[in-house]
Amino acid sequence: MPEGTFHCSTCETCILSMTQHCYFTNNCIGKQNFKYFYLFMIWVLIGSLFVCALLGQSFLRIFLKDEAFLNLIKDQKKIIVFTFVFCFALLFSVSILFGYYTYWSIDQRKKEFEIKSNKYLKLSQSSRGRVIAGIIFLKKCLLPFFEQERHAEDFSHVI
């Protein structure tokens, strides 16, 4: 079993670099699917922000008791308020989770960068070695959606 593998008691499987078991996707989040989970969070943020933007004006008019608007939407008032509050709560909670995972991802990339940069800087202490290490840092830390490297043990289940 590779180093950094964790056992999920919910799925009863071992996951490389497991962060959590997500009940929304009913799947464990690890090294192989972290970028897809990250993109899922981005789309949830965009969707809830869109709904909040659409319903924000209506919610404000209900809150300020605009009589002409209230007469127009007689039965939908509770639906509008509930949907706005739900989407705003979703936006708030997912943005906290998104911020945490962004910080965690950058921290993991920094650790990988330190290990790899020590290897590159030992080869060459010139400015060229530092430039190579900086490019690796930018690729791994700031652009987390590059295709991950595959190793032979990743395909052991295919046989």
From TrEMBL:
Main location: membrane
One Pfam family of this chain: DHHC
GO CC, alphabetical: membrane
UniProtKB keywords: Acyltransferase, Membrane, Transferase, Transmembrane, Transmembrane helix
Domain Palmitoyltransferase DHHC, chain residue ranges per copy: 2-106
InterPro entries named in the record: Palmitoyltrfase_DHHC (IPR001594), PFA4/ZDH16/20/ERF2-like (IPR039859)
EC number of the protein: 2.3.1.225
Reaction catalysis annotation: L-cysteinyl-[protein] + hexadecanoyl-CoA = S-hexadecanoyl-L-cysteinyl-[protein] + CoA
Membrane topology of this protein: Multi-pass membrane protein
GO MF, one annotated term: protein-cysteine S-palmitoyltransferase activity
Entry's localization field: Membrane
Entry text on domains: The DHHC domain is required for palmitoyltransferase activity.
Official protein name in the record: Palmitoyltransferase
